[in-house]
């Protein structure tokens, strides 16, 4: 009798690729364990042995997405020569990436409704992942201020949150069919606000001071 071949080794990264794309396309609640097993090419016992539960698999998929997809947009943030170039890189990288060539459109984290679907730990996990964008942009602005590139006294949190809102809105637009040209126009419009947002604050008027006529 011929000896049996060894079973094919479980490829965790490929399995996570498949699970991530399925969650990205369908959302958490609409994705069943049967769907996941079919996409990942494993049976239910193997899935539970590898990931523990659907919730744990989703958490692993969010982390996998951040490692593999996010660098296309955020990878040049620190290397850009100026803060403006860094923000431009994020927005134009989003315009190129979010329409979804070879992957679902939009951003898995931005589009996730898991907080509304089941709340709890997964909701907090996704909310924290979204907040990371504000944190990264705030850090880049703080570096520019420390280097003397931008003036002190800027409302760093407001600027970072504004551009995060733009980038996340581009994700929703991409999901609904917007292509590169439409998203680039949004990015350019937001970048046009940069001079006003980063201008030095005007000195306050002294009490009783009259404006010259």
From TrEMBL:
Keyword Transcription regulation: yes
Molecular function, one GO term: DNA binding
Positions of the DNA-binding region: 32-51
SUPFAM superfamilies assigned: Homeodomain-like, Tetracyclin repressor-like, C-terminal domain
Pfam families (alphabetical): TetR_N
All residue ranges annotated as the HTH tetR-type domain in the record: 9-69
Sorted UniProt keywords: DNA-binding, Transcription, Transcription regulation
Highest taxon, organism lineage: Bacteria
Keyword Cytoplasm assigned: no
InterPro entries per the UniProt record, alphabetical: DNA-bd_HTH_TetR-type_CS, Homeodomain-like_sf, HTH_TetR, Tet_transcr_reg_TetR-rel_C_sf
Protein name (Swiss-Prot/TrEMBL): TetR/AcrR family transcriptional regulator
Organism lineage: Bacteria, Pseudomonadati, Pseudomonadota, Alphaproteobacteria, Hyphomicrobiales
